[in-house]
Amino acid sequence: MESFEEQSLVEAMNKLAEAHPRWGYRSMTKLLKDQGWQVNAKRIERLWRLEGHRVPPSKAKKSGQKAIGGPENAARKRPARWVNDVWCYDFVSATVRRGGPIRILNVLDEYSRRSLGSRVARSIGATSVVKHLEKLFEMHGLPRAIRSDNGREFISSTVISFLVAQKVNPIFIEKGKPQQNPFIERFNGTMRRDLLNVEEFNNITEARVLIDAFNLEYNTERPHRGLGMMTPHAFAESRSVVG
């Protein structure tokens, strides 16, 4: 049977637990000692558990905006109809010997399959995405829309607000369905197979030079079956730019 002293201690502990529901038994021990109780953490832990107290689990930290895409934005359902109608973009990763991992942001024109330019950096956040798009818009003109997955950079308010201000429609595929964005997936796969898996970059500068060279070769020398064996550059030149 509990002693009167222990009953009083439990009542004091419960009162503190109610006032501080996210505190554990160690914090309760300190508070009780401050109130004049002669207790140690081991005793309070025993009473704490007997009373059924526990620290509630932390709420899962949100990683930004929820996925906002849908299957109606898949390339098959919303195909590009002319050059600069729909662009697409996504990241691919690589490593350099001096410095470790890097990120590569590739952007493609879906209609012509032309690589519009890659940004290579150790990290690429939403602000860097905007800077890259600003450069490409100046070089190639504005697309009507740009397709992506639900990566946190792409769905960030920074990027979306920028695109809306430029009157470029951001369209997002369904979460976990990369096949709905096939052109950039295929391009990234080709870059990995033909460059990233066969070349060892010494540093980020070398990576940028070799990736630029890969893009130039891809656009001007590599025949594309989807374009009737024309290169992306030749196909784009053969079509009138509309946008």
Could you explain the architecture of this structure?
It is a single chain. This protein is of the alpha/beta class. It has two domains: 47 residues; 167 residues, Ribonuclease H-like superfamily/Ribonuclease H (Nucleotidyltransferase, domain 5). It has a five-stranded mixed β-sheet, with helices on both faces. The longest helix is centred in the last third of the chain and has 17 residues.
- What can be said about the biggest beta sheet? 5 strands, mixed
What is the correct CATH architecture of the largest domain? 2-Layer Sandwich
Q: Give the radius of gyration.
A: 29 Å
Strand order of the largest sheet: 3-2-1-4-5
How far from one another are the termini? 84 Å
Q: Could you name the CATH homologous superfamily of the largest domain?
A: Ribonuclease H-like superfamily/Ribonuclease H
CATH C-level of the largest domain: Alpha Beta
Q: What global shape is seen?
A: elongated
By DSSP (H or I, 4+ residues per run), the number of helices equals 8
The sequence of SSEs as H and E is: HHHEEEHEHEHHH
Number of domains: 2
Task: Give me the secondary-structure topology.
Elements: H1 4-19, H2 25-34, H3 41-50, E1 86-96, E2 100-109, E3 115-121, H4 126-140, E4 145-148, H5 157-165, E5 169-172, H6 182-196, H7 204-220, H8 232-238
Parallel strand pairs: 1-4, 4-5
Antiparallel strand pairs: 1-2, 2-3
Helix pairs in contact: 1-2, 2-3, 4-5
